[in-house]
Structure formats: C-alpha cells, structure tokens
Design goal:
It is a single chain. The chain has about 200 residues and is of the alpha+beta class. About 25% of the residues lie in helices and about 30% in strands. The protein has 3 helices and 8 strands, in the order αβββαβββββα. The protein has a 4-stranded antiparallel β-sheet with strand order 4-1-6-7. A 4-stranded antiparallel β-sheet has the order 3-2-5-8, with no helix packed on it. A hairpin with a 2-residue loop joins β2 and β3. It is elongated, with a radius of gyration of 27 Å.
Length: about 200
C-alpha cells in the first residue's frame, strides 16, 4: 500500500487505546514551576550591589568582647557573598572598638551582592589581637531597601563563643534564621524573665 500511495487502513486496536498524560492542572503547575525557576535564574545572573544592615550583639559578661577583625558571609537563594568585614560601626556614635565590646550592640552597613532571601550566615573572625575570643549572642540582618519584600529582617541566635579555645573551638560558625514560632517563643521567654526579675526585686 505504501508503494502504491494507498492510505493505510485504520488500526482497530487504536480505538481501544487510552492516552495517559498530565492533567491540565498538573501541566499548569509544571508551567508555573518552570517559570519560577527561570525567574530565579535571571535574578541570579543580575545580582545588584545592595546594602545590608548587620546588627551584632555581644554578651554582657566579662571578657565577652573581642579584639579580632570580624566578618560575615551571606548565603541566600541567589547565591553567596563574602566574607565581608564588619567595620565602620555605628553604635551610639561609638567607633569600631566599641562595637565589639562586652554588652555592645554594633550596627554595620555591609555592601554586598544581593543574595535574595537569606538561608544562613557565617560569622567569624581572624583570631587577632590580645583578646580575640568573642561571645556573640545574636545577629540581625536587614536589607536597606524600600520594597516590601526587602524590608524583612532575619534574626539569628547563637549565644556562645566564636573562639579557637572556648565553646565550639571554631573561628567561624554558620547560623540559620529563627522561624516566626522561635522568635515568638524567645520574646515570651524574655518577657517572663523580666517579670520574674521585677517580682524578685
């Protein structure tokens, strides 16, 4: 039949074939996922320089402050950036030395490539100076942008030493952001501690 250009006869078996494939809903979901993945890749390629406000809180106990040079690495959905030195601090008009003193809250403006939603940060120092051990309690990172999506602050809780000889005996630690539930629990715990302190006094 093919040689004579005669059309093939329909196959009776095809009448009973059932096509199995993606439903319209599943196809739509895959299309959305593909579009989101493509958008993410575009953002990774076009990462702009932005300013992150990094707030580091040092424990108030004796010897908690550090003489070392400290830094931060930012890790996000768009990629990583760092290590970035923590310098030019603004803490009630104080300088860099005051920013890492015991009980201090040092606020730093860090210029970095946009890493997108933060997944984690790495905090560390060079173990320099006469008293390099650092007792870091917490870190807050916020992108200095006006857009709603960029206004979110990320809280990281550590409450331990970054030291070659104390705590975990490590000069750098990776911290992960607190969830909303963890933040609420910490706020409630601090409120209870404050109430207990008032009762005792």
């Amino acid at each position: 039949r093919r040689l004579a250009n005669i059309p093939e006869l329909p196959d009776a078996k095809k009448k009973h074939e059932v096509r199995v494939g993606l439903t319209p809903k599943a196809t739509s979901q895959r299309q959305r996922e593909a579009a989101a993945a493509k958008a993410l890749e575009e953002k990774k390629k076009d990462r702009q320089m932005v300013i992150y406000e990094v707030t580091c809180r040092t424990a108030a106990e004796s010897g908690a402050g550090t003489s070392a040079n400290c830094w931060i690495t930012l890790k996000g959905d768009y990629g990583d950036f760092g290590p970035c030195p923590l310098e030019k601090a603004t803490e009630d008009g104080g300088g860099i030395d005051d920013a890492f003193a015991e009980g201090a809250k040092g606020i730093f403006d860090v210029a970095a490539r946009d890493v997108g939603p933060l997944r984690s940060i790495v905090m560390g120092h060079d173990n320099g100076g006469s008293s390099p051990d650092w007792y870091l309690t917490s870190v807050t990172v916020r992108k200095l942008r006006t857009e709603k999506e960029d206004a979110k602050g990320y809280d990281f809780y550590f409450d331990s030493w970054i030291s070659a000889s104390r705590g975990q005996e490590a000069l750098q630690v990776e911290l992960f952001p607190l969830s909303q539930a963890q933040r609420e629990k910490m706020v409630a715990s601090k409120g209870k501690a404050g109430a207990d302190a008032k009762v005792k006094t």
